[in-house]
Amino acid sequence: MEPDEKLVDVPARRRGRPLKGQSETLTQSIIDVATDLFLTDGFRATSMDAIAARTGSSKRTLYARFPSKLHLFDEVAARFAHRRQAVFERAEGSGEPLVHLLQKVARDLLEDAVSIDSIAMFRLLVAEGYRLPELKLIGHERLFEPMIRTVSTILAEAVQRGEVVDLDPVLIAEQFIEAVSGREVRRIAFGYEPAGMTPERLARLSTVVSLFLDGISAPRRGSLEQSGVSAGLHREAGGRIES
Questions:
Q1: Which of 40, 76, 80, 164 could bond 216 through an S-S bridge, CB–CB 3.0 to 4.6 Å?
Q2: Chain-centroid distance, C-alpha 74
Q3: For residue 163, which of 98, 105, 209 has the smallest C-alpha distance?
Q4: What is the domain range of residue 37?
């Protein structure tokens, strides 16, 4: 039996960088072809037969590396996650001021989110995820959770420094990601706008980050005292109106 056709156990979920090993070239070729077919034709319409035929390998070779189509889709999603990991590694522990850090993270996240293949992946997950919960789980764990962890870590550190209000950093991270990329991704996915970064998107992004920081920044002491006075006056005025 040829080494490429030897049946092996493949873990249900591999984390981290792309596969390496004795037959890395063939394995990467399979993932390349699967990525193209999944994003072009969809998950359900893509067969393991078609992937094997496109790569010139046997189904036995294919299943030796990926026991199911879901395993293969997980590796495709892992490649997306690996690409985004560079964004997170640049952000974490950089020591930059919060405004500069969030601006960089926002730009990198948006640039990746509005790319042609990211939009295709979004469409696939929306169109087929409701029937195949496993797809949604893979998409969430591979693509969304790392973003949330990175941004929430940045915000949690800012809370400790007293730079932002003490709210749930995970919730605020989710709002940040939605504000940065949600509108743009949906408009591209629905066909209203083309994919890719544009000057208009960059201009909107700057506004979004500024508004976000205005909303979560911890008020200074003078502002707190003034807000307390204003609240007291409001209560007094309210009391007079009610009486």
A1: 164
A2: 15
A3: 98
A4: 24-67
pLDDT per position as a tens digit, 85-134: 766 666 665 667 888 888 888 998 999 999 999 999 999 999 999 899 99
- Counted residue by residue, the chain has a size of 243
The reply to whether 44 and 106 lie within a common domain is no
Q: Let me know how many helices (H) and strands (E) the chain has, helices first.
A: 12, 0
Q: Which residue has the tokens 């990525």?
A: 35
Same domain for 101 and 36:
no
Place of tokens 């591979």: 142
Burial of 10 (C-beta count, 10 Å sphere; 0-12/13-18/19+): middle
With b for 16 or more beta-carbon neighbours within 10 A and e for fewer, the 152-173 pattern comes to: bbbbbbbbeeebbeeeebeebb
Q: With bands split at pLDDT 50, 70 and 90, how would you rate the model's confidence at 4?
A: very low
* pTM of the full structure: 0.76
Token pair in block for residue 44: 């359900």
Q: Are 146 and 84 in contact (CB under 8 A)?
A: yes
Q: What is the DSSP letter of 4?
A: G
Query: Considering just the CA atoms, what is the radius of gyration of the chain in Å?
Result: 24
E strand or H helix that includes residue 54: helix 48-55
